[in-house]
Each structure stands twice: as structure tokens, then as C-alpha cells.
UniProtKB/TrEMBL annotation:
Function: Catalyzes the synthesis of GMP from XMP.
Domain of life per record: Bacteria
Catalytic activity: XMP + L-glutamine + ATP + H2O = GMP + L-glutamate + AMP + diphosphate + 2 H(+)
Record-given protein name: GMP synthase [glutamine-hydrolyzing]
Keywords, alphabetical: ATP-binding, Glutamine amidotransferase, GMP biosynthesis, Ligase, Nucleotide-binding, Purine biosynthesis
Pathway listed: Purine metabolism; GMP biosynthesis; GMP from XMP (L-Gln route): step 1/1
Residues of the full protein shown: 193 to 516 of 516
Domain GMPS ATP-PPase, residue spans: 2-199
Keyword Glycosyltransferase in annotation: no
Subunit structure: Homodimer.
List of residues binding ATP: 29-35
EC number annotated for this UniProt entry: 6.3.5.2
Length: 324
């Protein structure tokens, strides 16, 4: 029967044979799949795996720094790219969700492309990067085949493909036969930190699709603060590991409030937490009222610019997990 240890042994051995002395380049996202794929490749070829981690400025609070540090800690050959301002510039004035996704996808490829050139430029004469590493898992393979149908236009999710074409790279996907729970078991066998393995799914475009309407650096900052309070409280109360996914959404409305003798007119955030098996259907999570009350108070008292917090009690379908 299948075991994670046996999978690691056979996969590392076959990667060694397949890749030899070749160089591989790979984009990491901080998510479970790309991290586990990178650690496997790293065991097989060491420093010949070149990892790139792009900060699009739309991750959770402090996440870029923390994840970069844990990658360095794991001994990965990783290069961080601070591309925040370029992403914000390209997104300025854009409010349509699919356009946001397309802009972010294209900007990401530009950044990766440039970082890949830089990696190539540092290699000795005659040595070329030949492979693109990817954290594709089995359900992604199935989805990228099946999304050719009419549902393909619902959301342009996926990160399968996305090859920078200048480099004619071959693709290596060590996890493409595994389901998510198997990836987690392989990650555990490889010693990947529980903080990475237990992480909720997080959309590639990140907070861009949790800020309804136009994105500004200020809205990102406010949302990161509120979300940080939410996620910390979920962790401290033991709820983080009981929900499939949770996040905070910045709504495109302001509402009236009162502070002392003054009326305020400030922003509203929505909290979302759902239970799910695969993201295809989802039920809203019945978080305890006391916990919601604590989170709401903390957000309103500590995050300047927010005077109202609401909780999303919609399930999928017909609602979706994200609001955009
Ligand atoms: P929805 O909102 O469609 O989300 O119910 C289902 C799952 O997909 C994630 N999601 C995305 N992931 N790029 C991604 O990589 C995207 O554009 C995107 N949109 C939604 C969502 O977070 C949930 O886990």
C-alpha cells in the first residue's frame, strides 16, 4: 500500500535519474503544494533547484517575510522578488474581478520571467536552465483537462501551464499523481513545518479579490490588519484547524458609526469561514458568538478606518467562497 516514505524514496530517486546535473527553476507561493514539490526537488538536485518567491503585495500581513525565512531555513536556494509597487501600479483603477486576475497573472509571469533571466545569467557558460518545476497535484491535472467546457469562463483559476515561452523549458511536476491529503503526508515525511502544511488554501491573486472594487495600498493595509486579528483569534481559539478556509473581505461601502460625540463614516469588513472537502461546495462555519464578538471588538478598536464588521452566513452554492 501507499506510504509517504516510500513515495519520497522512489520520487527522489527517479528525479535524480531524470534530472541528472540539470538546473530547474520554480516559482514558490508559500502554499502547501509548491513547497512540498520544491523540497522533493531540492532533495534530488540540491542547489540546482532555483526557487523564486514573488511578493505581489497581496499576501497576508507579514506573510512574505515569514515564508521567505522558512524557505531559507529549509536550505532552499530561494530568491525573493519585491514587486509590490509594480503590481499596485498595474492594478490601479481596476475593479472588475476577472481583469484583476488577468493583470496579476500577466504581471506574475513578467516578474518570474525576469527573475529566471537573472538566474540564467549567473550560471556558467554553456549551462542552461532546462526545467520548470511545478507543484501541480492530481486534481489540478483533472481540472485543467475538464475546464475546457463552458464552466471554464466562470473563473480563470489555475496556475497549470503559465510557462514563460522565451525559455522552452520542460516541465517537472513531482506531485501530479497525488491528492491534497497525500501531499500533506509527503510534506510531513519530508519535515516541512506544520505551519506550512496546515495552511488554509489561499487564492493566487490573494487579497486583490478580497478587496471588492479598486485596490489601493491603503485598503491592502487595512485589510491585512483586520485579517491578522481574525486569523490570530481563530488560531488561539482552536478554530483555525477546524475550518477549511477563512478570510476577511474589504467591502466597497462605508457606513455610519458613532465615536464619542462624533459621527463616523468608515469602512466595513466581512468575515468568512467555511467548511469544505474540495472547495467545490462549502458550508458557512458556525463560529461561536462569543468568538465573533471578540474578533469584531478587536478589529473595530484597533484597525483605524473600520467601524463595522459583518459575518458571511452564505453557503456554496449558490454563493462562492470568495466574494469576487
Ligand atoms: P470560489 O470563490 O470559486 O473558490 O468558491 C473556490 C476555491 O478557489 C479559490 N480561488 C482561487 N484560487 N486563483 C486561485 O488560485 C483564483 O483566482 C481563485 N479564485 C478562487 C478560493 O480561495 C477557494 O479556495
Amino acid at each position: 500500500s501507499w506510504t509517504a516514505d516510500a513515495f519520497v524514496d522512489t520520487t527522489v530517486a527517479s528525479l535524480k535519474e531524470k534530472l541528472g546535473d540539470d538546473h530547474v527553476i520554480m516559482a514558490l507561493s508559500g502554499g502547501v503544494d509548491s513547497t512540498v514539490a520544491a523540497v522533493l526537488l531540492h532533495q534530488a538536485i540540491g542547489k540546482n533547484l532555483h526557487c523564486i518567491f514573488v511578493d505581489h503585495g497581496l499576501l497576508r500581513k507579514n506573510e512574505y517575510e515569514q515564508v521567505l525565512e522558512s524557505y531559507q531555513h529549509m536550505g532552499l536556494n530561494i530568491k525573493g522578488v519585491n514587486a509590490k509597487d509594480r503590481f499596485y501600479q498595474k492594478l490601479a483603477g481596476v475593479s472588475e474581478p476577472e481583469r484583476k486576475r488577468k493583470i496579476i497573472g500577466a504581471a506574475f509571469i513578467d516578474e518570474f520571467d525576469e527573475a529566471a533571466h537573472a538566474v540564467q545569467a549567473e550560471l556558467p557558460e554553456g549551462v542552461a536552465v532546462k526545467w520548470l518545476g511545478q507543484g501541480t497535484i492530481y486534481p489540478d491535472v483533472i481540472e485543467s483537462i475538464s475546464v475546457k467546457g463552458p464552466s471554464a469562463t466562470i473563473k480563470s483559476h489555475h496556475n497549470v501551464g503559465g510557462l514563460p515561452d522565451f525559455m522552452k523549458l520542460k516541465v517537472v511536476e513531482p506531485l501530479n499523481t497525488l491528492f491534497k491529503d497525500e501531499v500533506r503526508r509527503v510534506g510531513k515525511a519530508l519535515g516541512v513545518a506544520p505551519s506550512i502544511l496546515g495552511r488554509h488554501p489561499f487564492p493566487g491573486p490573494g487579497l486583490a479579490i478580497r478587496i471588492l472594487g479598486e485596490i489601493t495600498a491603503e485598503k491592502v493595509r487595512i485589510l491585512q490588519e483586520a485579517d491578522d486579528i481574525y486569523i490570530r483569534n481563530l488560531r488561539e481559539s482552536g478554530w483555525y484547524d477546524k475550518v477549511w478556509q477563512a478570510g476577511t473581505i474589504f467591502l466597497p461601502v462605508q457606513s455610519v458609526g458613532v465615536m464619542g460625540d462624533e459621527r463616523t463614516y468608515e469602512h466595513v469588513v466581512a468575515l468568512r469561514a467555511v467548511g469544505s472537502l474540495d472547495g467545490m461546495t462549502a458550508d458557512w462555519t458556525h463560529l461561536p458568538y462569543e468568538l465573533l464578538a471578540k474578533i469584531s471588538n478587536e478589529i473595530i478598536n484597533h484597525v483605524k478606518g473600520i467601524n463595522r464588521v459583518v459575518y458571511d452566513i452564505s453557503s456554496k452554492p449558490p454563493a462562492t467562497i470568495e466574494w469576487e
